[in-house]
Amino acid sequence: MLNKRLQRIGFCFSLPTILFFVCFISIPIIFTLFLTFVSWQGYDLAQIKLVGIKNFIDVFTDKIMLKSFINTLIFVIFTTFFLNVLGFFGAMVIDQKIPGTKFLKNAVFLPVLLSPIIIGIMWSRMLDAFGILNKFLQAIHLTELPILFLGSSKLAIYTVIAATIWQFAGYDMLLYYAGIQGIPGELLEAARIDGANEKGVIFKIIIPVLSPVITITLLLNIIGGFKVFDIVYVMTKGGPNHSSDVLATYLFQQAFRLNNMGFASVIAFCIVILSLIAAIVRLNITKENF
Amino acid sequence: MKKVLVLILALIIVGTFGIFIGCKSTTTTTTAVETTAAAETTTAAETTAAAETTTAAEPITIEFWSWNNEGAYPKVHEDAEKRFMAKYPNVTIKREYISYADYLVKLKAALSGGQAPDIFQTPWAGEYTDFARSGAAEPMTDYLKKDFPAFFENVMKAITVDGQVWAVPLDLNTLQIAYNVNKFKELGLEVPKSQDELITLAGKLKDAGLFGIAQGTKDLWTGADTFFAEIAYTDPTHTKMAEADEGKIGWDDPVFVDAIKAVDKLIKGGVYAPGANSMDAFVGAEDLFVQQKSAMFYPVGNFVTGGITEKVAGAFEYDLFPLPPLKAGDQALSTGGVAEMFCVSKNGKNKEMALEFLRFLTNDDGKAILVANDFIPSSDYKGDMSKLSPLYKNMLDAQSKTQSRVIYNTKVYQAAMSGMQGIFGQELKPEDFIKSLVEAAKG
Predict the structure, then answer these.
(1) ipTM of this complex prediction, to 2 decimal places
(2) A196-225, pLDDT tens digit by residue?
(3) 20 to 30 A Cα–Cα from B310, which one of A11, B10, B63, B433?
(4) Strands (E), chain A
């Protein structure tokens, strides 16, 4: 009897959250899934037309979609790799009790607190043909003509990747730093007494002990990479000529420039699936590790 | 304790449902008002009467959305607002300016969510037809016959979709090249009469340490406008763009091939400042011109001259010329069309007053303030023309020779805009650009 009452009270407590979840998460997801099978401009619900799997065929045969997908993969691979490498070694550096590391820790973490929009605008200004970097390169005679970091289809996506790494390296660094702090000092000391050099300590002790942190950080970076939009949109708008389009910017273009909500919903669905795979992998690994 | 907990819970639940029920009842009331309003406003004459009746009614807020907070447009809107509110003190005009990058996203969300602003600025090109067919905009043909000025016939034709006009055109624009008159004089340069002369001129500017035309194609649309400006010359009939847009001819027609080749020649000839693809249409490119690093800037029309004049602040004099013709001696043509135009939301709560505000925006007083700010009204202006600035006279003259810069097929327009980035970056061949248009036209 008491159990039932407690259950009811518990349910009542959860009700606002359940309602919120249903209204703002479940219904939009179901609606997006529904939209993948329709043709709709996004204005009037009465204008929705069922088109079967046409949107899926269109998406998977679209050249720009393929380009966006490849760019997203490039973005995920490069940002994940560099964020983790820089984050780990940054954490190793700030873990040394030498002067200046406290300042370094704060300085590297500072960009994480800024909006990607601000970061995007700042880097766009610095990297444009007349920006400070080109002026510097010209001043030291490394290049005569400005390098079109954002205006060249070969460089644009990598420039955005570099700006992203600059922004989020501090975040990964802090995660690794927290992990390193959790390693017992005696363990490292014992390894050193047993004759392990610094390389051995890093690769044989620190990295294996940090594997749960590494797993979480990797997966956070992967999921974040699949969803990236703002910094790409601000820095290049997906251009030039779609060369830096990622899935989310192409989704935006299809939904809000071409009013092709069905097509856009399929892209949204692809992003969800990719993120979901990464999340499931994360959950499984986390379960194993903890 | 348990009783207190249960009481708190009950309050939360009642509150939550209250919010939902409240939202629902508001919507219902709105729908009822809308239905009544719709029934009452079948004719334009009745609309005016309704507007007059509202004078003594309760406070009303008209939401007005635009992306044009550049140049002097806000002054024009504000002036209309003051005149309007003097007559209708119970009506407040809530003007909201949203950057163009976010504008369509927010508007679309508002329209599909039933929270549309009463008046919203509409883009030209494909988005306009999409709005027209979306069911979100009120058909305006009948309303425009009553108490609105007689808009120019070609303007009405340009904004007619499926036999109806869907927006109120405020003003017209021309897209030309702005040039630094002082620098031209200093270097002994003259306005080029052909595109070959433009290439030669760019070379001389380069020798003097200046860039040619500052143009930002990161915002996409400016690149497409360069293509349209060339079509004005390669197609002497001035009909083929519309025909291709309607699918009557292909985008691989020689006039389009010649146009893109002409753009390519200008780029290879060093006419443009480097880094077009990484520059915004106005912020980046305009800065180059204002800071006198570039002697020219495109595209410039009345939509931006107010802002340029303010930034130049008398540091130098500037004037405008259209993209020169392909051959010297041919008439120089500019491109242009309707600049600002506004739709009235079909499901708006205050349709009558929204229409009335648009009358204030476009009436004789509205036209006078447009002219005073270097804008070109979309209907005949009979006011004092003697005090017009030379810049304005230039734009007015260009307006008489303006060719279309509008294609309504959104896919083709998007392909043209993206493709032009490839052309400006010299990473796409003209023939591949044409292929992308043909492919986009197939849908």
Answers:
(1) 0.83
(2) 888 889 998 999 999 889 988 998 999 999
(3) B63
(4) 38-39, 49-50
Chain A residues in contact with B428 (beta carbon < 8 A): 241
Q: Within 13 Å, how many C-alpha atoms sit on residue B341's CB side?
A: 29
DSSP code of residue A147? P
Instruction: Using an 8 Å CB-CB cutoff, list chain B residues near A45.
Output: 112
Contact A60, A267 (CB under 8 A): no
Quick one: pLDDT band at residue B180, thresholds 50, 70, 90? very high
Touching check for B23 and chain A: CB below 8 Å?
no
* Residue A45: predicted pLDDT: 80
Cβ B122 vs Cβ B342: under 8 Å: yes
Q: Tens digits of per-residue pLDDT, B303-334?
A: 788 889 889 999 999 999 999 999 999 999 99
Over the stretch B99-113, which tens digit does the pLDDT of each residue have? 887 898 898 888 888
b/e A53-78 (16+ beta carbons within 10 angstroms → b) = ebbbebbeebebbebbbebbebbbeb
Which of B134, B274, B275 minimises the CB distance to A43?
B134
pTM tops 0.90:
no
Q: Contacts of residue B16 in chain A, CB cutoff 8 Å?
A: 15-16, 19
B374: contact with A, CB 8 A cutoff: no
Q: What is the CATH number of domain A32-268?
A: 1.10.3720.10
Helix (H) or strand (E) holding B343: strand B341-344
Cα(B370)–Cα(B5) distance, rounded to whole angstroms? Answer: 64
Pairing of strands B341-344, B376-377: unpaired
